[in-house]
Design brief:
This protein is an alpha/beta fold. It has eleven helices and 16 strands. It is elongated, with a radius of gyration of 24 Å. The protein starts with a helix and ends in a 5-residue tail after the last helix.
Length: 410
């Protein structure tokens, strides 16, 4: 295909979905290879080499080892324009796969249960289409393959940013796509403004005074205090925070004691709070510390409350970029674009959006007829691979159009 001729004749003439269908088999094959070789956060050595080699084979300039195992590819167009970054995460989860597929994980206890294998395959597919189209491509496209998204704390985006991933050349717009096990195939979920929460993890150490279970009056029972703390924490969202501002608190881990008749010296709780704006986030942290300390003191104990440092911020989509991106996505034949409600899960892509305007969006991959009915992070999570071509086309389309003038308008 003469891409340069198409560019001269009509810059909007490229049918990205048609191009994605041409390489659909290859994209699926790539996804399955990645699925069989999952690697946990900060250990994506094989994965990093795989994607870097693929990018170089496409003629993309590649920088390896960015912020750890990160990979940055740069594709230069033939005409001056904007710089658009596209991101895919690379790490897997410590989950033993139970999905009924022929290409199961070959690593015991590790699985791409959140679809990061599909993210990489779709971005590599988009890179292939854009590399072929560079005769009509304005500006530059950066391909960001990020490690350690599942870590939840420092993660992988921040180290990549600190290592210059969003600079030289400076990124004007950034887009990220996530596969969604609850949404039907071919459906995009989009939203302007806050779309995903800040996930702040906490650890509470309750310090009491141990003794015999038959004489609790001679002890300060940290287990009993912990039970009251758990109940008290739920009162923060129902009675101490503005009810119109989303806030969730969950205690997911409780540890204490060694024997049924021994009152231990301490108890430890671990949990998470989820918020969609910084004011609520800061207030929630203060309330947690205050409630825990008050309850512990009332029963004669004490507490240490720690929040994980470097937790992901709220993921906030730029309203103007999202509006124009939606107009573009609606041009993909057979795809559906729906406005979604915020999700209280966290996402490391939030850090990239703090450096450049853009959008984080979702692509459905559920299909009951194929047994693709389990949510992300399930050991039975399966993806209807018919969805991948829509992801490939959407990423290539957004990069191609936003590189032209920064608005996505054709």
């Amino acid at each position: 295909m003469d891409w340069a001729f198409i560019h001269r004749r009509c810059e909007s003439a490229v049918d990205f979905l048609a191009e994605a269908k041409k390489i659909e088999t290859e994209v699926i094959r790539t996804r399955r290879t990645l699925h069989q070789h999952p690697e946990l956060s900060y250990h994506e050595e094989w994965t990093s080499q795989f994607v870097a080699d693929r990018l170089e084979a496409l003629g993309v300039q590649v920088k390896r080892g960015v912020g750890g195992n990160g990979v940055v590819g740069i594709l230069k167009g033939s005409v001056e324009g904007r710089v658009v970054a596209l991101r895919a995460d690379m790490d897997a989860l410590p989950v033993a796969e139970a999905a009924d597929v022929d290409f199961k994980s070959k690593v015991d206890g590790v699985m791409h249960a959140c679809g990061h294998d599909t993210h990489m395959a779709m971005l590599l597919g988009a890179a292939e289409i854009l590399a072929r189209a560079k005769g009509g491509l304005h500006g530059k496209v950066k391909f960001l393959f990020q490690p350690a998204e599942e870590h939840g704390g420092r993660g992988g985006a921040l180290p990549m940013i600190e290592d210059g991933a969003m600079l030289d050349p400076k990124v004007d717009y950034v887009f990220g796509l996530h596969i969604d096990g609850d949404r039907r195939v071919g459906e995009f979920g989009v939203r302007e403004g806050p779309v995903m929460a800040a996930p702040d993890s906490f650890r509470i150490r309750i310090i009491g005074r141990g003794g015999h279970g038959s004489a609790p009056h001679k002890t300060v029972d940290p287990v009993y205090i912990a039970a009251n703390v758990i109940l008290g924490l739920q009162g923060i969202s129902s009675r101490m925070m503005d009810p119109v501002r989303p806030f969730v608190i969950t205690v997911g881990s409780v540890h204490s004691g060694t024997k049924e008749n021994v009152i231990p010296d301490y108890a430890e709780l671990q949990g998470t709070i989820r918020t969609l704006d910084e004011a609520t986030r800061k207030a929630a942290k203060r309330k947690v510390a205050k409630v825990v300390e008050g309850i512990c003191r009332s029963y004669g104990g004490s507490a240490e409350v720690e929040f994980e440092k470097d937790a992901y911020p709220v993921t906030v989509n730029d309203p103007e970029a999202t509006e124009q991106a939606v107009k573009l996505l609606r041009k993909l034949r057979g795809a559906r674009v729906r406005r979604m409600e915020p999700i209280l899960g966290g996402e490391d892509f939030s850090r990239f959006l703090q450096k450049a305007p853009g959008m984080f969006y979702f692509l459905g991959a559920a299909n009951p007829a194929k047994g693709c009915v389990y949510p992300n992070h399930s050991s039975r999570f399966k993806v209807d691979e018919d969805a991948l071509k829509y992801g490939v086309a959407s990423l290539a389309l957004l990069a191609f159009e936003f590189c032209k003038n920064g608005t996505g308008r054709t």
